[in-house]
What we know:
The chain is built from nine helices and no strands. It has helices at 2-21, 26-44, 47-50, 54-71, 80-88, 90-102, 119-135, 141-164, 189-208. The longest helix has 24 residues, at 141-164.
Amino acid sequence: MMLEAIFLLITLLTLFLFYKGTGKNIRVVIIFFIWQIVTGFLAFYEVFKEKPLLFPLVIVATTLLSILGFKMISIKELNTRYLIGIHIVRIPVELCLYQLFIEGQIPEIMTFTGWNFDILIGISAVVILNYQLVKKKNLARKIFFLWNVIGLLLLSVIVIIAILSSPLPIQQFAFDQPNLALLEFPFSFLPTCIVPIVYISHVLLLKKL
């Protein structure tokens, strides 16, 4: 129960940072919050475990809602420090994933001891944010651009691995220990809330440049 509670707090923190980072755009946060209630309800009653083929439809819907939310955000209202802060959340997320691997809920390839290097972006986000706060200036544009691109690539890699490790007809990895946790509550919030918000924050930071 401790891990579940921690993950719920991480999800709420992500939503709060997103709210602050988008210039307190409550409409977008409400969209994500309501969507988590819907998907969380389904995950809590193990609908995704019983009908795993339903989960890809949820991911498609999440993608469409993310695009809608992105279009509702004004670039002029962005708070880049909070958007960078969102990526620090990737550190506790990766630690949770590692614990889930230990408990046999996800494969090792989805962790930082496998093929998931997403934690490096979280650590570098701490460095970038400290640099901005101490030096009182932004990171060089080219370096910041490259950091966001690498962040998007690493996130995309682990998303693909997670999908291909799930108990679906397209599964290619981890047949001995498949990705089951993300079909359960509250870890289903990772693909339906945290990951899309991290994607959006990267794109917003790039657009801000």
